[in-house]
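Methods, example record. To illustrate the input and output format used throughout this study, we show the complete record for 4Fe-4S ferredoxin. The sequence lines were provided to the predictor; the line carrying structure tokens was produced by it.
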Amino acid sequence: MPNDMTHLQAEATRQAEICNACRYCEGFCSVFPSMFAERSFAAGDITQLANLCHNCRGCYYSCQYTEPHEFALNLPAALAEVRTESWETFAWPAAPARLFQRHGVALVAALIVGVAALFWAAFALAPASGRGFYAALSHGVMLSIFIPAFLFPVAALSISARRYWAAVGGRRLRIADIKQAARDVATMRNLSGGQGQGCNFEKEDRYSSARRHSHQAVFWGFMLCFASTASGTLLHYGLGLEAPYRLFSLPKLLGVPGGILLTLGAGGMAWLKTRAAKGLGDTRVWGGEMAFVLLLGFVGASGLALYAATGTGAVPALLALHLGAVLALFVTTPYSKMAHGVYRTAALLRDAQR
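The corresponding predicted structure is encoded as:
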């Protein structure tokens, strides 16, 4: 084992070298063209391959060297374990990384603490006056809670991304690199094994596009929800128009479809995880990943419930539940599966430079 490699990286290297000799999977996802471009692998190369892998599992079901063959290849699992290890290595601050990656209970605890904090704020700091949500929790209190909660993951993930970029030998980006990576992110091409047939995540050797569609629903749902919040901010500070907004206002036209997509997509992802073979991923983090997916779905569902309850006595309790879930999502983002969006994007940018 090379001195700079961990045991997990060394095992992934062994399997990658066998794949490099066989090359049966040459037409598969972006991992294999990148792998076949190398004659030997350093630790940074394996880290890059691990984060380029979307765990579609097509290579496993096509491989002639899986168990009971003596080579015992399981490349999806080997890369998944290196991927988890890399996220824990590059995370900042490092201490909570293993906790949130591997223990769904920690995410649930974060949710409980977040909800309890928002309940306390809603009842102890209730404003003397206000309309809509601001009658339960003042605008100033919301800002004082969520601006730091938003800036923290942005700063933490920026540091993590810089560490990753240095480890994999990333160079200065060109416009063409950014365009290619953005196209791959938007279409999630690698979730279909790069061939457009779908992946083998939950149906073994049969192709399915369900995982890709669920991921796209979550991605675009999250982006619509973010755009809804951004448009509400512009209306509030730019035009002096305060929430609550009507159904045919821009925040609602973006936020309601976004919440529906986020909820349905997260539900689909959770269901698919129960059908997929655990042994083809990193079994150590299955619980943490499932808890994250459920938290993501709860954010969407609680937001929709809060909108439906506008004008009723249920608003304070639903507001605390929803904002508590959002707070938990933000605070755990640098350490939960949410971070994969940053690492995968960085891996696709580095691959575009290849």
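Annotations derived from this record:
Residues 7-90 form one domain.
The CA atoms of residues 48 and 168 lie 6 Å apart.
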